[in-house]
Amino acid sequence: MSDDVHALIGAWVLDAVEDDERRLIEAHVAQCESCSREADELREAVARLSDTLVTEPPPGLRERVLAEARRTPQEPAPARRPRPARRPSRWRHPRLRLAVGAAAFAVVAAFAGVFATWQVMRGPAEDESQMTAVLEAADADVAFQQAEGGGRVTIVYSADLDRAVVVVSDLAAIGDDRSYQVWLVDAAGQVSAGVMDAGDSSATMVVDGVGDTEVIGLTSEPAGGSDQPTTPMIADVALPA
Amino acid sequence: MVDTVSAESLLLRAGHGEDEAFSGLYDLMSPRVYGICLRVLRDRAQAEEVAQEVLIEVWRTAARFDERRGTALAWIATIAHRRAVDRVRASQAAGDRERRAAAESADVPADPVADAAAQRIEHRQVRRCLKALTELQHRAVTLAYYGGYTYQQVAALLDAAVPTVKTRIRDGLVKLRDCLEASR
């Protein structure tokens, strides 16, 4: 499946895909740093195809565009590279070592407080075994943070598995036109780790390929998510070192 | 040739709300934006309308531009192409013969900006690099970019298998990228 999606990167940067495929690829690229780099490079080449098209626009266009721009408010800059230092030491149990098996689930459930309403964001069966593997990993650590506006984000992370379980619970209620989105933040910026269903304020997800991620962040975005955060982080949980 | 360094700084300044920087950016980039719209839409009135939408989107979202991820030229050309393609798909039935016939040439239809020497060199680079592609790669990439077709439509137009076209497009773009980078 992901091979199929990956093969579409070329067609995608040429805008030669249907809308539903576009959404699939964008979700894939948002979670794949190397794909995102490849797409950026190909986009530079594609843009050069317009070298031969340069054409003097009609004379009236300049004045109309500049006048409309003066009346048009700009979107604020997206949050980039939010710093974990922004809200230091909100950890309650920064290096809690997990017990294994059922006990680990219980620990996470206690932190998250929503065990019964966990929603698995991807393939349920696969996710469940991946989740168990993280919770049972010998090096698993737990971190959590209260989110601004209410609710909390709990993370169980295994460096050995390069994988994290992110539990988001009881965030501030949002309308159906908004989605909470999870971000992996490192020194180079952030990539999307997943978008919650529109209007939902609790979810659980497994994040693969955590890599050099320093912080797992959370923002509220237009329904369906954004390429980059468009609002400030409401939580920024530093991964246990 | 667009001076990409100043295009980036103009775009970044426009992102901080500087009208003057946006005027400068208009002068640098509007011929490219309009040219892309005209090429894909093949209609002057529609091209002008979409070009205006594109340039306003550039102004509105300028703060999103991240220079670590690419050039201002690519950022703006991407918005222009995407908007033009959205419009052509909304307004035209797929398979328009006239559009198809014109789609495969990299030549601009009419009144290009007076060719500066640097610009002619760039044209030559792009044409030369397009020629380095295999015939199927070349036709698939140009139909998609200049014609605004999806890869499924391209496959139908070229009477080729859909997975083959998907692969050729990607291979073609990788080759194009390598060729353009090598000729910098």
UniProtKB/TrEMBL annotation, chain A:
Coiled-coil regions listed in the entry: 25-52
Q: Where is the composition biased (Basic residues)?
A: 80-89
Composition-biased stretches, type Basic and acidic residues, lie in: 61-73
* Pfam families listed in its UniProt record: RskA_C, zf-HC2
Q: Could you tell me the membrane topology recorded for this protein?
A: Single-pass membrane protein
List where the protein spans the membrane: 96-121
User: What keywords were assigned to this record?
Assistant: Cell membrane, Coiled coil, Membrane, Transcription, Transcription regulation, Transmembrane, Transmembrane helix
Q: Where is this region: Disordered?
A: 53-89
What are the residue boundaries of the Anti-sigma K factor RskA C-terminal domain, all occurrences included? 102-232
Task: Spell out the subcellular localization from the entry.
Answer: Cell membrane; Membrane
Instruction: Give start and end of each Putative zinc-finger domain.
Output: 3-35
What is the protein's name according to its record?
Regulator of SigK
UniProtKB/TrEMBL annotation, chain B:
Instruction: Write down the Pfam families for this protein, in alphabetical order.
Output: Sigma70_r2, Sigma70_r4_2
Domain RNA polymerase sigma-70 region: where? 25-92
Q: Does Flavoprotein show up as a keyword for this record?
A: no
> Residue ranges of the RNA polymerase sigma factor 70 region 4 type domain?
124-176
What top-level branch of life does the organism fall under? Bacteria
Write down the SUPFAM superfamilies for this protein, in alphabetical order. Sigma2 domain of RNA polymerase sigma factors (SSF88946), Sigma3 and sigma4 domains of RNA polymerase sigma factors (SSF88659)
- Any idea which UniProt keywords this protein has? DNA-binding, Sigma factor, Transcription, Transcription regulation
UniProt lists the family membership as follows: Belongs to the sigma-70 factor family. ECF subfamily.
Q: What is this protein called?
A: RNA polymerase sigma factor
Which species is this UniProt entry from? Glycomyces endophyticus
